[in-house]
Amino acid sequence: MGAKGHELLSEKHKNTHRKHNQDPAEWRPDVVHQCLLHLLDSPLSRSGQLQIFLRTKKGVCIAVDPRLRVPRSMRIFEKMMVSCLYRMKVRSTSGYLSLMKVVKNPITDHIPANVRLIRVEKDGELVDPFLLPKTLGRSNHEEAVKQVGTSTSSSGAFGALHTKKAEETFRPFAFVIGGMSKGDVDADWCPKHQVQSIRLGDRSMSAAAVCSAIVHGFEETWLAEDNKLANQS
């Protein structure tokens, strides 16, 4: 049980779903639990390079602090989510840090204005997750800086102008992943046929597997130096 007797709906509440003519497969907090475990336990998140937002079926938007340690127990995780939805936030044990908090919609108010939205779904364009960093984010930025550096002077206004242009080639991006067992993401701020849509394989993948594949792909590139040092030690 959660705050004041509230409880998070899941597949086990069959009578409630039957009473309200709901599909139990659409109420799967365990899917979100597994996704958060894969994301927040990743080296990418612990290095401060991952930002996570949750959006419920009813449109409630939740910001997740990367310092959150997701409970391993599903029962405790459900209590934490109920507390967040009821009290609008989950505080750390010290009380000074909000590890999860409900934020105002739309979610686009909390991400960069020029962010590139990418939906991950079964009928999207097939891509290799380990090649994503070469077309998104920091890899493009570093390559642009390298190319500009070899063709311009590093001093004076001319060099500064081109360095600024190189920095502007970086464009923030966000993956939209459905934390559910079936169906497509329904988000008016990320319409299906107006943003890029990708898939990571020809076979179906769980949401947690998708999260894991994406973060591993970026870790191989973004944390390459850290991985080398770890192997040497």
TrEMBL record:
Task: Name the segments for region: Disordered.
Answer: 1-25
Q: Which GO terms describe its cellular component?
A: small-subunit processome
Keywords for the protein's UniProt record, in alphabetical order: Ribosome biogenesis, RNA-binding, rRNA-binding
Top-level taxon of the source organism: Eukaryota
Q: Does the keyword RNA-binding apply?
A: yes
GO BP terms: namely:
rRNA base methylation
Similarity comment: family membership: Belongs to the class IV-like SAM-binding methyltransferase superfamily. RNA methyltransferase NEP1 family.
Kindly provide the name given to this protein in its UniProt entry: Uncharacterized protein
